[in-house]
Design a protein that fits this description.
4 strands, homodimer, 10 helices, Glutaredoxin, four-stranded mixed beta sheet, alpha+beta
């Protein structure tokens, strides 16, 4: 379709609200006639820039307690299982590189959904190769190609560049949705509004 | 009505998203058959407890820039005017005391709406007595009684106790909605969900 609007979906594999969006964004984007561009990045360097060495959900205990309870309610509403990953946050560096290695072949979204499910519905450790391999297989990707590609300098550089771009766009949390005209929408709660904005072509 | 469910609406006069909720909560609560209990408190002491000396919207510039843009979008959607108060955040100590002085007479909600409008739609300084007096008059309250009451030890103690209670409930931001069974819902985005939870009597 010509001129189908695009919405960038910036997500972080360690982020609980990115998990919520990853499982519901594609169907809503289809309904809205919007193409979703899946853009994994790392929040760690962005948090470090404001003096945080871990997730704000760990730094601020009341906020963290609230978030896990809220996530229980949201997953119940969405009909999905929640199992809290341990440790939290997960180390998402390799996961993000693997996701970016699938950009040309097109399996990034399916791999990302599978890996988010492993992390937050099954409590798996996404830094483990076996967990990455299982998610790749679910996405129809070949682990024998994807894992070496994820370790290549090219893909490592790609993740650095994406994270730098996120920072320069003013992104400070995940998920963040960015429209073609540069509007930022932060949080799973803003997904519908972001799609509406993108679809209106504003 | 017997056993009409109650939802506590914890708000801070300096908080932009409390402003959004204050202007729309009562109509939605009526629709849901829920009684809203207006509970002004101070976020300052709670922020101080986690080492913050000002609003997180000032501490984290990207978050602050995003918040003001988001607030522009939300007020446009809600059909209300936005004028950014200067300075931000406003000193809300006296405002919260005045609001609590109206609890028995029942003008706390009307006064709070008028003062939020002065702060965020007209850019007024809510620490100024003239601004408080105008909001009291709009709410049908007598400034000659309300202001001395707000300065009384009893009302000062009431605000301290409310803020302590908020902290002990695990409140870390505003607005926060708390149901009779102790569920917390943080943020203007969760107002509808909080009302639904309260109405279901869960």
């Amino acid at each position: 379709m010509p001129n189908r609007p695009v919405l960038d979906f910036w997500y972080e594999f360690a982020s609980p609200y990115s998990f919520l969006s990853a499982l519901r964004a594609e169907a809503l984007a289809d309904e809205a006639g919007v193409t979703l561009r899946w853009r994994p990045f790392l929040l760690g360097p962005i948090f470090a820039g404001q003096g945080w060495t871990t997730s704000p959900f760990n730094l601020f205990p009341n906020k963290g307690r609230y978030m896990w309870r809220d996530l229980e309610r949201q997953t119940t509403r969405n009909g999905i299982r929640l199992m809290r990953p341990n440790p939290f946050p997960q180390n998402s560096l390799v996961a993000a590189r693997v996701a970016l290695a699938g950009r040309e072949a097109g399996w990034t979204p399916a791999f990302s959904r599978a890996l988010f499910t492993a992390a937050f519905s099954e409590g798996r450790n996404i830094a483990e190769e076996a967990v990455l391999v299982a998610a790749l297989r679910q996405a129809g990707a070949d682990p024998g190609q994807a894992l070496p590609a994820a370790r290549s300098e090219e893909v490592k550089g790609r993740l650095k560049a994406e994270t730098e771009l996120a920072k320069s766009l003013g992104i400070f949390g995940a998920p963040t949705f960015v429209t073609g005209d540069g509007e930022l929408f932060w949080g799973d709660d803003r997904l519908e509004e972001a799609l509406g904005w993108a679809a209106d072509g504003r």
